[in-house]
Amino acid sequence: MTQEMSAKEFIARRIALELKDGDVVNLGIGLPTLVANYLPADVHLMLHSENGFVGIGPVPKDIPPIGKPRLVNAGGNPVSILPGGSTFDISTSFALMRGGHLDAAVLGGMQVAENGDLANWMIPGKNVPGMGGAMDLAVGAKMLIVAMEHTSNGEKKILKKCTLPLTVKNRVSTLVTEMALFRFRDGKMFLEETAPGVSVEEIRAATEADFTVSDNLKEMVISQTGL
Amino acid sequence: MKSKRLEIEQVASFLRDGMTIMYGGFMGNGTPPRIMQAILDSGVKDLTMIGDDTAFLDATKGPEGVGLLIRNKRVKKLITGHIGLNKEAQRQMIAGEMEIELSPIGTLAERIRAGGSGLGGVITPTGVGTSVGEVKMDVSINGQKFNQKQTININGRDFLLELPLVADLAVLEAVKADAFGNLVYFRSMRNHNPLMALAGKTVIVEAHEVVEVGAIDPDLIMTPGILVDHIVYPA
What we know:
Number of helices of chain A: 5
Number of strands of chain B: 16
Number of helices of chain B: 5
Strand content of chain A: 25-35%
Oligomer: heterodimer
Mean pLDDT of chain A: 96
Structural class of chain A: alpha/beta
Largest interface: A-B, 44 and 52 residues
Low-confidence stretches of chain B: none
């Protein structure tokens, strides 16, 4: 990881290389949204917005005032819709999510367990926002990519078992942190890539979960878009 | 044919304390603002509200939606998917002033659709193994009584049995209606509105524009007018 690049940007740049041209993808709020900034020039995604459309486009120049008909994203902020996009009701939108019609979902994480469990929607007694669309997205996307900083103030987040309330069980496909990339197969966790300058021992020391080091362990390569 | 036109002042005649109201919208986008104001102005209280989320508390960021009724303490119970951008809703939940049943949004939508579609329930993988499956509720299956949401294993996979939702009243927002109540929604404003049109015993829509019957191509109608009881015309 280069010194001037934040952990979040590094993670987003790595995930940008996981997605293929033409993929239908839902990017969660926060870190996952950054992924769109680093896609290679020849990769164009059809981005899904859970409030009822695909083809998320940039913020329009002329935003209609609140109270006038307007298109917003799942966070309620004005966006546009690209050619080829389409709109639908919530039942169809969540059928796309739950029914396996999205090639990938990228979600932020609070904790991930070695069996592929994800916790990312609440901290009891502190923040209870509601799960929104996270559980439907996590249960159904063909590929569930979690974007998460490896530790939080020194506290481990990649665990044998999540201690926070779960979002989904056994569904994480890929976990990308600023230290490592893990993949999950048959309920087990494999270290596939290490960030430049980070050793397997350092990753073990920062990880509670048991993982197997892949026979094909590689150094992480990130998207160079805009660098 | 009897006119479906309703003056905004007449909305109050459909309201009573303790009733259940479904409200369209996602982050307030597609929630009928004048009808929400009319509900507040009527003085009705102890409402059970069913809808996607609690929208924005900061009116400069987006519509307040159902937050108007929450802020004014009219809501006794809320069935919703997300309250994260409304600190007042969170405060009332933690203080025990308002009962909140949190539901994954996809599950909420299908429960509404089931309620309006004559289905006995929804069997979904969403929430299996999470706190969503541990919700306390009374349900009788094949004569056996349970006091918790049930997990059902079908051909080796676990699902949650979620029960249908209906409401005394559904309030919708449409960009265009004809005088019979055939509706067209704008972009992301469609969201839960077509599902709630099925699930409300009485359905009132607030339309940005009302055209004469026949002016909308039947193939482009998103909610059939036979579901809509009353139309609030633009101010």
